[in-house]
Amino acid sequence: MNTAVSTPVMRARGRRSAIAIVGVDGYLGQFVLDWWLKRCAGEDEYEDGDGDVNATAAFEFPTVAFACGRRGQPSTSASSSSTPTTRWINLNLADEASCEKAMKEMIESSDVVLSHVVNCAAMSSPGACEKDPATALAVNAPRALWRAAKQYSEALGERPPLWIQLSSDHVYEGTRALSTERDDCKPVNAYGKTKVECERALCEEYGNRSVALRSSIITGPKPPLRQVDRTLFLHFVASSFGKEQATSFYSDEFRNPISAFDVVRVIRELIFAEAPPPQRVYNMGGPDRVNRVDMANAVARHLAAGDADKEALFKMKIQSASCISAQKARGVAAPPDISMDSSALARDVLRNRWSPRSFKAQVVDAFKG
Q1: Distance between CA atoms of residues 24 and 213, nearest Å
Q2: What's the pTM value of the predicted model, to 2 decimals?
Q3: Could you tell me if 263 and 215 are in contact, meaning their C-beta atoms sit under 8 angstroms apart?
Q4: Strand 218-219 vs strand 210-215: parallel, antiparallel, or unpaired?
Q5: What is the pLDDT of residues 95-150, one digit of tens each?
Q6: Which of 19, 82, 158, 282 has its CA 20 to 30 A from that of 216?
Q7: Maximum Cα interatomic distance, the chain, rounded to a whole number of Å
Q8: How far is CA 135 from the centre of its chain?
Q9: In order of start, what are the domains of the chain with their CATH numbers?
């Protein structure tokens, strides 16, 4: 890698900064893009907007490439004005040629400097990953994409963009509570294995210009730009209360759910930090260690709004089950306790100025509006 920084700094003075949001058609990606557009418009709650920015969005599925243009018609070419523009680039993470083409277009753009890549895209269904591990690995560890980012940046004498990668708590075996980054990663399913490989390869091939964030379940309201092709877990819980039969929820699977808004806050801090943090991988969970029954009961309490009879009726539809016992029927091994200690993230990235939403507050957020 070219270690000189004078060339990229001089080159950037006449060009705007750009970020690439990979997987912006997914749930989390929409919140990242929505925040970035608000920031460009001066609506960021943390700081004033900066018009000298170009937001570059990369989509996994071409059919939705123009579906998110809520704040103006997307442009397929660079704008010469100082007004922030959003360029929509189709991308198939499982195809190396597509990855190289998309990254070449972003890196070699004549009017912007790509400073950050936020990769929210994933093949996140454990069942789908078990059935097609090769595709899962290609999508969840997109080596062609970050290799192209490094190659094209260094060819121009620039540092590669800081790579912010969403990983998963499924990297842990699930045999202990509140795992830390120092604990061994022994994933029990294909999904977790692809995430471990992603972290390993990204650190090895991209070096200290990368940060992986091990996320737990991400909660929040309906996505801000378009519906996603899956039911959000808390909304699934709410829908189960209207069914005749009780719905099974695991009592022995523990997680640290985190709000989409808190994830965006972490990404924001990484984007505007003066330097990458000291660790290459961080746990990123919320403050509460809960199981699926706990989550369902919290939804019941919230939706009952103080009506004891209604709450009791809702809770009658919650049936306790074991994720271990269900493994054979599901065909996918499930790690029972992948709760995480996220204190390193709070210390290094948020500088101990972070109060992530409690699970109770996350439930309130999910059903606002």
Answers
A1: 17
A2: 0.89
A3: yes
A4: unpaired
A5: 999 999 999 988 887 777 889 999 999 999 999 999 999 999 999 999 999 999 99
A6: 19
A7: 68
A8: 19
A9: 6-220+257-288+339-357 (3.40.50.720)
